[in-house]
Amino acid sequence: MSDDRTPAGSAATGNHFGGFHVQTGPITDTDRARVELADEVRAMIREIISTDASAEEIRRARDHVHAGVEALFTKAHGTPPGVGEAALIERSRNFLARSPMMGSINPIAVPITLTVVNEGAQAVVEARVVFTNTYEGAPGCVHGGFVASAFDEVLGVAQSASGNPGMTANLSVDYRSPTPILRELVFRGWCERIEGRKIFTRGTVHHGDTLCAEASALFIAMRPELFAKLLAMRDATG
């Protein structure tokens, strides 16, 4: 990453629950370093499943990776007293960047680049993504589970942009045609209506003019105290 955009490529949607779907605070050099490392790990994952290197060469690469993991582990677990609180703040601030679907510092993420087109009760989001062979299911196609996960993420941002974010209660996906890997896909998600704490959303994913799948999801708005409780539970587990 060479600029100061949000690490997950997301447009700001408002400060919901302290940054549930928003990058808060400035992007630091450490953030950029995490993004760079995550990009390299993604490249490594792609190579692992397709390489024709010899066993010796693969084990040599494994040793390099092990050394890197060991260096990061030593730093994380050798933290001097008094830094723990700062680490928790950092984790909270990077909530979206750590997403397993669109998080720029999470190497298992694609990641998805998402833009909020409209906010409020009629919130609309658009996301663009190219799934690599890492996410292949049927030959040449994105695994359906990752399509569903992408919908959960995109519709999750749409319902969050409505101003009263919640958690997924139900997600239904209809697969209309093969969803290709190595091609740009466009997800669109929107908030259809809100009934009390229930937020109803719908979405589509296209490759060019071809409808690959469509989805509907119900989210239940969270009370602030529940979100705080979930954060506390997560941070307590390290």
Description:
With 238 residues, the protein is α+β, with helices and mostly antiparallel strands. The chain contains five helices and six strands; from the N terminus they run αααββαββββα. The chain has helices at residues 29-48, 55-77, 84-93, 144-161, 224-236, and strands spanning 113-118, 124-130, 166-175, 184-195, 198-207, 210-221. It has a six-stranded antiparallel sheet with strand order 1-2-4-5-6-3, with helices on one face. 30% of the residues are buried.
For CATH, the homologous superfamily of the domain at 108-233 is named as Hotdog Thioesterase
Enumerate the strands of the largest sheet in spatial order, edge to edge or round the barrel.
1-2-4-5-6-3
Mean pLDDT: 81
- Overall SS class: alpha+beta
Architecture of the domain at 108-233, CATH level 2?
Answer: Roll
Radius of gyration: 19 Å
What are the salient characteristics of this protein?
238 residues, Thiol Ester Dehydrase, Chain A, 6-stranded antiparallel β-sheet, 35% helix, disordered N terminus
List the helices and strands and how they pair.
Elements lengths: L28 H20 L6 H23 L6 H10 L19 E6 L5 E7 L13 H18 L4 E10 L8 E12 L2 E10 L2 E12 L2 H13 L2
Antiparallel strand pairs: 1-2, 2-4, 3-6, 4-5, 5-6
